[in-house]
Amino acid sequence: MTMNDVYIIGLGMLRFGKYLDRDVRDMAHEATRLALDDAGLEKSDLQAAFFSNTFWGMFANQHSIRGQVILRSMGIEAIPVTNVENACAGASTALHLAYTGIRAGMFDVALALGSEKITHENKALSLGAYASCMDVANFEDHLKMMERVNKSFTLEIPADQTPPGDGRSIFMDAYAMGARWHMSRFGSTQRQLATICAKNHWHGSLNPLSQYQMDMSVEEVLADKPVAYPLTRAMCAPVGDGAAAAIVCSEAYLKKLTGARPIKIRASVLSTGTDRDLDGEDIGERLAGQAYQAAGVGPKDISLAELHDATAYGELHQTEAMGFCPVGEGGPWAETGATKLGGKQPVNTSGGLECRGHPIGASGLAQIYEIGIQLRGEAGPRQVEGARLGLAENGGGNIGVEEAAMCIHILEK
Description:
With 413 residues, this protein is an alpha/beta fold. Helices cover 37% and strands 18% of the residues. It is globular and about 60 Å long.
């Protein structure tokens, strides 16, 4: 069996935001058209498609054939369409499946597409939906586990810093638990989390496709509304809608194209979490090792990264898990400015989930979009100089103390 190198030749994304007047379908159509235009291809050129979405069935009762509904309604038919549901890692999983099919020689050009609408007039419905990304039958046990773990920390929580659990998703409590563990175990601080968040707000202010485009200081982040200690509202990804797409092809197909600006996929890995405690081996550490081995590179070779920062603690943790700094030192590492534009290894130049936004079924491909335009040198005021290798880490759902699923991609100029 021959193995093909796989290339991204088309990227499309619309600005993430709150779009009460738009739906999953029309946002997906826009992202697909943008990716096709970017690749210089027609709809009829696509040989397979992988569509990621998480909540359409819950909000609008469209289950079962989501990808077929999306693509048929824009005249893409008679090709294999696979529906992908992998919580927040759905879009990167769609890309992984497209990559896998091309590597196996099953087709030469494929679409990976993610579209999600989460804003709703009923805010409780929007926030409640996130709980479906956990083990629903064992939800009460999960809450009890979090309560037990939180009680084990030697950490004083300011009285005004943890409001009641209404008005936020359960994932903010899960991230807050991880952050408190890190503070208790390694001495990291709320101010370090605010440094990460302020950096992402600056990056987001330079990104025309970012949901939030306002710069914020460390003090403004700390003074924002408390969500779950140590997290303030600015440190948490907003609810939002959007779509993103990538078109991938084989090396043989690439050779037939003129004017392509290809990005090589050096590694594409997918895995699930394990039943571990907070001191056990992290899914990100394990999967990063696999990605680096597949790509034949190490953490020091990565020019920039898009990491899954559903909260600022997510970024702190993942900079450690990806090997960019030693475990326990993510906070001080951020304070050195290493992860900021102009720093040693910029992270979340898009603004990350905290600012670019996090429409769950589209987020993984938004990360790929950012890495892709950076590697092409097309990122404008937030361009990373000399960008050669980019890493995207995208986690999805939660079982126990870590992600239920995760994808890591390493892309090369």
